[in-house]
Amino acid sequence: MGRLHVISHPLIEAKLTRMRDKNTSSQDFRLLLKEISLLMGYEITRDFETVQVEVETPICASQFPVLKQEFFTIVPILRAGLGMVDGLLELMPFSHVGHIGLVRDEETHVPTEYYYKMPEGFETSEVIVVDPMLATGGSAVDAINSLKKRGCTNIRLVNLVAVPEGIAAVQAAHPDVDIYVAAVDEGLNENAYIVPGLGDAGDRIFGTK
Ligand code: PRP
Ligand code: URA
């Protein structure tokens, strides 16, 4: 089964608390999400492989580590996942970015895919799927299905806030995928919103509604 990594750090916790506050503006919400994504990136990439290369320092030549993979592919689930891209790109500017557009039906909560575009060579790269919210898990499961159908084998999922239901759904459908989250909340309300959560992440990022 895919491992659940809860990235707990006082800076992340304090920033997430500000994001949860309904009085936080879209501008601040976006900035906080970017900052948290960058901080989470440090842990998400902890196990990335390195290889030794020879480098000549001003003193002598010796062997030093560099990242084994030339690039990683960051895949935001539109729309809200876009809010996590800039922070990760700041940390890993050599990354490529693919997009999957999914929207949940307001009644059934079942997601529908409306957009899919990946950069060349993504199948063999390490793929980092990002979306602030893991609620029922339907969107994450579908996004990972889409990627696997096209040959991806190395996928990790990054969410800001998750609930046990969503985590269980992803672990059941994709036992090979590790999940990285900043917080695990109590559960879902009758509209499949995370409780206490932070509301509708897409609306808060883009100021819609
Ligand atoms: C939200 C969120 C996730 C999804 C999570 O997107 O950004 O993609 O819901 O819910 P789930 O785990 O139950 O699938 P939404 O469909 O509201 O679209 P948006 O990002 O365009 O607002
Ligand atoms: N999508 C959101 O944006 N927020 C939730 O709480 C659940 C799904």
Key descriptive features of the protein:
single chain; globular; binds uracil; two-stranded antiparallel sheet; 6 helices; binds 1-O-pyrophosphono-5-O-phosphono-alpha-D-ribofuranose; Rossmann fold; 13 strands
Quick structural overview:
This protein has 209 residues and is α/β, with parallel strands linked by helices. The chain has helices at 10-20, 26-44, 85-91, 138-149, 164-173, 201-206; strands at 4-6, 50-56, 61-67, 72-78, 96-97, 99-104, 111-117, 126-130, 133-134, 155-162, 178-184, 187-188, 194-195. Uracil (URA) binds at residues 80, 133, 135, 193-194, 197, 200-202.
Please give a structural write-up.
With 209 residues, the chain is of the alpha/beta class. The chain has a single domain (4-206), classed as Rossmann fold. The protein has 6 helices and 13 strands. The protein has helices spanning 10-20, 26-44, 85-91, 138-149, 164-173, 201-206, and strands spanning 4-6, 50-56, 61-67, 72-78, 96-97, 99-104, 111-117, 126-130, 133-134, 155-162, 178-184, 187-188, 194-195. Strands 1, 4, 5, 6, 7, 8, 9, 10 and 11 form a 9-stranded mixed sheet that branches. Strands 2-3 form a two-stranded antiparallel ribbon. A two-stranded antiparallel sheet has the order 12-13. Helix 1 (10-20) runs antiparallel to helix 2 (26-44) and helix 2 packs across helix 3 (85-91). The protein is globular and about 65 Å long. The N and C termini lie far apart (38 Å). The model has no long low-confidence stretch (mean pLDDT 97). Bound molecules: 1-O-pyrophosphono-5-O-phosphono-alpha-D-ribofuranose and uracil (URA). 1-O-pyrophosphono-5-O-phosphono-alpha-D-ribofuranose is lined by residues 77-80, 102-104, 109, 111, 131-140, 166, 192, 200-202.
